[in-house]
Design a protein that fits this description.
Layout (H helix, E strand, L loop, with lengths): L11 H21 L8 E4 L7 E6 L9 H14 L8 E5 L7 H21 L7 E5 L20 E6 L1
Parallel strand pairs: 3-4
Antiparallel strand pairs: 1-2, 2-5, 3-5
Length: about 160
């Protein structure tokens, strides 16, 4: 007797959709994860073997770099190489959606500049560093307006 539900058979359509379902499930797991503490910072997954990324998180309304953030920046600076290195360092800064949009834009700019200054202090030439401050316009974790989300208060350091 053949199963009615098709559980015993593999559908070609299911094989095609499987990678998309795995990605969607992974995104769901990430978006449901508990938020990181505000001072947490950690390496982000690299896009390719030639790229490395790090994240420095900030307290609400602040552009001050904490101790853990300085450690992450030090690691990024070591991996970017010193004055003789030629790779680019891209900073992408974000703010959560609490407060006014223009204030969040300014805050993300100050955060990016703070990280750029710390990288320069650790030996990276400023001309290697590019800055993109997104404010609240491109949230890492989508939220409603007015929501304070620590995962959206950070600067990504991308080594290219």
């Amino acid at each position: 007797m053949e199963p009615r539900s098709g559980l015993g058979r593999r559908s070609p359509r299911r094989d095609v959709l499987r990678p998309f379902l795995l990605v969607a499930t992974g995104a769901l797991v990430v978006s449901c994860a508990a938020p990181r503490p505000p001072e947490a910072a950690s390496p982000a997954p690299a896009a390719s073997a030639a790229e490395r990324a790090y994240i420095v998180f900030f307290e609400w309304g602040s552009s001050a770099i904490g101790e853990r953030g300085r450690q992450v920046i030090a690691e990024a600076a070591r991996n970017a190489g010193g004055e003789g290195a030629a790779g680019r360092v891209e900073l992408q800064a974000y703010a959560d959606r609490s407060g006014r949009s223009n204030r969040n834009q300014s805050l993300s700019e100050r955060r990016a500049e703070a990280v750029a200054a710390e990288l320069a202090r650790r030996g990276l030439r400023r001309e290697r560093i590019s800055v993109r401050a997104h404010g609240e316009s491109r949230s890492f974790v989508p939220t409603r307006d007015g929501v304070r989300d620590p995962q959206n208060r950070g600067v990504w350091i991308v080594l290219r």
